[in-house]
Each structure stands twice: as C-alpha cells, then as structure tokens.
Design a protein that fits this description.
It contains 13 helices and 13 strands. By secondary structure, the protein is of the alpha/beta class. The strands form three sheets. The protein has a seven-stranded mixed sheet, sandwiched between helices. Strands 7-6-11 form a three-stranded antiparallel sheet, with no helix packed on it. The protein has a three-stranded antiparallel sheet with strand order 10-12-13.
Length: about 425
C-alpha cells in the first residue's frame, strides 16, 4: 500500500540559504521536492477506534452525536448536519426566510458555492465589493445596492477572518434585513471571543476534508438562531424530498477530529502569526490584516505584494505577481491565486440562466456587472498570492523556517524578479477563463 507519510525528514535550513541565487535560475531550492507535500488531515488511531465504535451504531445516532458536539462547541442554538457546504448554505437561506425572487447581497469575491446556494434558494445574488486588506464584504458598499427586493446580507468570513460583524449587524437591523453567514472558511474564527456562525439569523459551513476542521469527504452544517428558522429548514427538507443527509462515515471522522481541533488551531495560529511577523521585515510581502478583537482561523493565508517598489516601476502588477509565484514555487512554497476572477464574471452569473428561462433572474431586473464595479476586489486579484495547506498541522518548525527563508530569499532578489516580470506576456488573471479554486 502506498503511504502518504513523509518518509524523508527536512533538515533545519541554514539562514545563509536566503543569500543564494534563486532556484528559478538553477540554484538549490530552499525546500527539496520530496519535502514539499503537506499532509492533512492527520489520521490517527483515535480515528480508527471511533470508526470501529460508530459502525456498531445506527447512522442517525452517529450523525446526531457529531452535530450536537459541534453545535455545543460553536455555541449555536440549533444545527442541521448536511452533505456539503453548499447544501448547508441553501438550508441556512431557506430556514432564515429567503424566498423566490428575493435579493441577497453577497461579496463579489468568494467561492462560487456562496452564490450558487442563493440561486438554489430561488433568490438572486447581488454582488458587492470587498474591503481592502480584510477581503471581506464591505459594509460601506451595501447601501447603494439596496432595492425593495433586498431580503438578506450574506457575508463570507473569507479565508477565516471574521467579516465586520458590528457594521453588518447594524446595517441589517436598520434596514430590517436578515444576516446569514457563510462560515465555510471560519472554523474556530471568532469576534470578541464569539465563534463565527453564531452572529446572524442563520449560517452555513463547509466541513469538507480540506478545511481546517475536516470531516471525511464532503460534509457541512447549518446553524440557526431561532427555532422557527430551524423548523422551517427541516420542513423544507421534508416537503422538497431533497436528501441533504450527512454521511455517517464523515460524522464519525468528525467526532474524533473534533477532539484534536484545539491542537490544530494552536499550531496553525503559531505558524501564521510567526510568518506574519517575518514577512513584515521584507520589502515585498505583507501578511494578512487582523483587526483588533478578531481571531483569524487562517483557513488560507493571503499575502499582499508591494508592487510600488522602485525596482518594479512600470511593470504590470499581475506580471510581478506571476513572476513571484514562479520564483516561490521553485523554492518549494506553493503560493497560488485561489480564484482568478470574481463571481459576477463566472458563466452562471454572467448568463443568468438559473433553472431555465432565466428563473429566478427574470423576477428582477437583469444586472450587468463591470470590472469597474469592484475596484478593491480587482486590485486584490492583481497583487496577492495565497498559501492554503502550508501552515496547517503538522508543519514542523524546520518547514516553517524554510518558508520564511524562501520569502526572504526572493525578497533579496527583487531586481531579478523585475527582470522575470518584464519578460512575461500575460493578461490580468480575471481576463482569463474563470476557474474554481
């Protein structure tokens, strides 16, 4: 049987590696190729034992046990375990009271499932720009998107940073709107000590195997503040005949993984905060912005590139980004884009066909979006890169140190990065065919 276990240990890197030529120019990379894989999730004997216990129970018992344990941890009043993150968002919307033809204000930058769930609820996503630095829905942009059809605001705690809860709550209360959270990146993220997923009328959260809190395969969970919303969601499932049931295998894996979630969180926090501090000493890179009172869960780690350096003048931002991505990848750091365009420019929302004959879009004015409608999100796509699994447990200190040295090595070669960027003939990422992830 082929193993995923890392069979070759990574040596503690010497700081002098940052003074060498770039690997893209033929020098030795900071992280050797056979040490680059990040194994996640971790499967231990506790997972195997839990599976042996759960197989002796009914599927409903296993799922109910997981849902109750996780609901209690998060602090939500009611919960429905689901088959996926998308189905959890769909239930959150329907349970909260979103109806066909309603408009839901949603960030233009997120994973496509956020807006697909709105369409699944037969409602209409209305896209709003994001706040620079936090990359979450910008409360200051909401008022100009209000119409008589607006029913809800659906912020995304993108990458695991809580959205501006206070401003969003105030806006929803003032305008009598529902607040529905997409907490799919926000496992263990919190604002003022309270977990994301508990601030709004309802919330959906993905629990797929590649999240900070992973279940086996695909899974999700919907949270509700009021019993009425919970019962409405349950009634919708019964009436529609949709099978959104969570797999008992996923739930069993979740029970044992939940016992280690605090450990995962602590290691990831340590790694991310250390990298933020180290990036602050470079000229090229800056880590995520974390407002006071917020706890970022670092499901992803978005890095801002300083494209205003004198060495980079006259070079298109997206070319600089592409040159840096190439250089970092060659050093063994898998920096990437994670979404190359905004949701309004994905085909389902550009064509607005819905379920056929334009439903539900024909219930409202057809909305045409331009890049100029989202200047903050477009600027982000041109000048940021993302780390995904790279800071998750178990990332040994020597690998974390290697990441730091790779960034510092690239930072010491800005002139060479400029040369590479000038040689690139590329269009901005959002002008390419839209892709997921």
């Amino acid at each position: 049987m082929k193993t995923d276990f890392m069979m070759t240990p990574l040596a503690m890197p010497d700081d002098s590696v940052a003074d060498k030529r770039l690997a893209v120019d033929g020098d030795t990379p900071v992280i050797p190729k056979n040490n680059r894989k990040t194994i996640f999730p971790n499967i231990t004997k506790e997972d195997v034992f839990q599976m042996m216990i759960s197989v002796q129970q009914s599927p409903d018992e296993v799922i109910a046990e997981f849902a109750e344990k996780y609901r209690q941890r998060v602090g939500a009043a009611y919960a429905i375990p689901t088959a996926s993150g998308t189905s959890s968002l769909h239930l959150a919307l329907v349970g909260a009271g979103v109806k066909p033809g309603d408009e839901v204000l949603v960030p233009a930058f997120t994973f496509i499932a956020t807006a697909q769930a709105i369409v699944a609820a037969k409602a209409i996503p209305v896209f709003v720009d994001i706040t620079p630095g936090t990359w979450c829905l910008d409360p200051a942009q909401l008022k100009k998107k209000l119409t008589p059809r607006t029913k809800a605001v659906m912020p995304v705690h993108v990458h695991g940073l809580p959205a501006d809860i206070e401003a969003l709550t105030a806006f929803c209360q003032k305008n009598n709107l529902l607040l529905i959270e997409d907490a799919s990146h926000a496992h263990s993220a919190s604002w003022q000590g309270r977990y994301c997923g508990t601030f709004g009328d309802a919330a959906g959260q993905s629990l797929m195997a590649d999240k900070n809190f992973p279940l086996g395969g695909e899974a999700g969970i919907a949270f509700f503040r009021e019993r009425e919303s919970y019962e409405r969601a349950q009634g919708f499932l019964n009436e529609s005949g949709l099978d959104y049931s969570m797999s008992w295998v996923a739930a069993a894996f979740g029970i044992s993984q939940l016992a280690r979630l605090d450990y995962y969180d602590e290691i990831r926090q340590r790694n991310a905060l250390h990298l933020i501090d180290e990036l602050a000493t470079t000229r090229l890179f800056r880590g995520p912005v974390i407002p006071k009172g917020a706890k970022h869960s670092f499901n992803m780690f978005r890095i801002t590139i300083n494209t205003d350096l004198p060495e980079l003048q006259g070079i298109a931002e997206h070319n600089v980004k592409q040159a840096l991505q190439q250089a970092l990848n060659e050093e063994g750091v898998f920096a990437r884009e994670w979404q190359n365009t905004l949701l309004p420019f994905h085909l389902p929302f550009r064509n607005q066909k819905g379920f056929g004959n334009g439903f539900p879009f024909f219930l409202d004015e057809r909305k045409e979006y331009q890049y100029e409608d989202f200047p903050n999100a477009i600027a982000m796509l041109r000048s940021t890169l993302v780390l995904c699994r790279e800071l998750r447990s178990p990332v040994e200190y020597e690998k974390l140190r290697a990441y730091v040295l790779a960034f510092k090595k690239v930072d010491k070669n800005i002139a060479r990065i400029a040369e590479i960027a000038r040689s690139i003939e590329a269009v901005p990422p959002y002008e390419k065919d839209a892709r997921l992830g």
